[in-house]
Amino acid sequence: QVQLVESGGGLVQAGGSLRLSCVASGRTFGSYAMGWFRQAPGKEREFVAAIRRSVSVTYYADSVKGRFTISRDNAKNTVYLQMNSLKPEDTAVYYCAADAGGLSGGIYSAMRPTSYDYWGQGTQVTVSS
User: Fold this and answer.
1) Residue 114 and which of 9, 102, 105, 106 are 20 to 30 A apart at CA?
2) 28's torsion region: left (phi>0), alpha (psi -120 to 50) or beta?
């Protein structure tokens, strides 16, 4: 069992930056692929970014590519989402998720919420115009 706790959300003006963190419980964090998703009111949960067990393999949604960066620190059981050049349309609750299967299907696995075994409670990000 893995517990995930997100933090770092808040209110920011358009063009600003935030860094989200997700801390995982347990001693097997390095064996999980990690992802970030977001959900705006009235919309479905959508993929944002993912990172496989190897920190050199990352995936991004087109809408955030070039603005967001996912990274992980296995020694700290933490995955990060650095968000720059934020836009009002980035406003959502952001969730981190863990996949014990390591996203073996690549980007196609990364983008599907059903690929992930564990989810955090989410952190609110609000971008004002």
Assistant:
1) 9
2) alpha
Give the residues across from 39 on adjacent strands. Answer: 93
The neighbouring-strand residues paired with 23 are 5, 78
Of 54, 84, 90, the closest CA to residue 69 belongs to: 84
48-64 pLDDT tens trace = 999 998 767 999 999 99
Q: What span, in angstroms and rounded, lies between the C-alpha atoms of 94 and 13?
A: 17
Relative to beta strand 58-60, strand 33-39 is unpaired
Q: What is the pLDDT of residue 106?
A: 86
Q: What are phi and psi of 84, to 5 degrees?
A: -115, 165
Give, in degrees to the nearest 5, the angle at Cα 112 between 5 and 92: 50
Summary count for the chain: helices (H), strands (E): 1, 11
CA dist 5 and 94 (Å) reads: 11
The band of 99, judged by pLDDT with boundaries at 50, 70 and 90, is: very high
* Closest to 109 (Cα-Cα) out of 44, 30, 27, 53: 53
Query: What is the band of 41 on the pLDDT scale with cuts at 50, 70, 90?
Result: very high
